[in-house]
Amino acid sequence: MEYLERRVEMVNDRLEAVVKSVEPDELAEQLGHVSLAGGKRVRPTVTLLVCEAVGGDPADAVDFAVGVELVHNASLVIDDIIDRSDLRRGSSSAWAEYGYGPAILASDGLLGEAFALFSSEEQAMQVVAESMVELGEGEATELVAQPTNEEEYMELARRKTGALFRAAAEVGAVAGGADPFAVESFGEYAERVGIAFQIRDDVLDATADADELGKPAGQDEVMERPSLVQITDLTPEEADGRAHAQSQAALDALDATDVPDSAAREYLRDLAEFVVVRER
After folding, report:
1. Contact criterion met (CB below 8 Å) for 197 and 86
2. CATH number at residue 230
3. What is the pLDDT of residue 225?
4. What pLDDT is attached to residue 38?
5. Which of 8-12, 144-148, 249-253 has the lowest mean pLDDT?
6. What is the Cα–Cα distance from 221 to 230, expressed in whole angstroms?
7. Model's pTM, two decimal places?
8. What is the tally of structural domains in the chain?
9. 279 lies in some domain
């Protein structure tokens, strides 16, 4: 675990430095409340691991990793406003702590800082911009044209969660100097991990305790949000089976990258297997 902890520490150190540089101080405080309050750092870790797996130095990818995390956090701020959720990662959500206006400004600030970090590399900027289009369309779909069957749900999960996972992997591959095929294959791996992650989130929302999750449970049903469990006749166990299928597809895509064995590659395999058994 020390291997992963060092990489998460790289992300956290750079993230803290970015937040501290923000002006005015009030905005820096709000960005810090959102982004420094914890979190699994799964997406930025994927960025660093993919960079290493293709032979790059993780230090060359840390800005992209932090940028991905900032985009993710910006989306969470908006999610919490839409859902009227007053808890995030065991602490008050941004809107509950500061009000709606400051929370929206904090989301904007997070995105601004993220794109400043991507601005040094045109391909990385394009990758993340495309993922944000997908994310935005996914969020809008969830509000106005909710899926009614499993196929439509999977497309929503791809846009809402898988797209940013894909971007996290692809910018890591770009930072590591990977060829286009490897960039695409790692993107496919991560998109599948993201979909599995989202399905497991749905299952946990339906079955777990709020104290274990660090956020309210049962929100999908309360908010009439289209989780896989809510819109199909699948049991939580069957939904977990769908997550496992996505995990296997991720492992197949990882194998297709044909990069040599390494600690980074092994941890990417572990991640694809872990996201479907996690408890929070």
Report:
1. no
2. 1.10.600.10
3. 65
4. 80
5. 144-148
6. 7
7. 0.91
8. 1
9. no
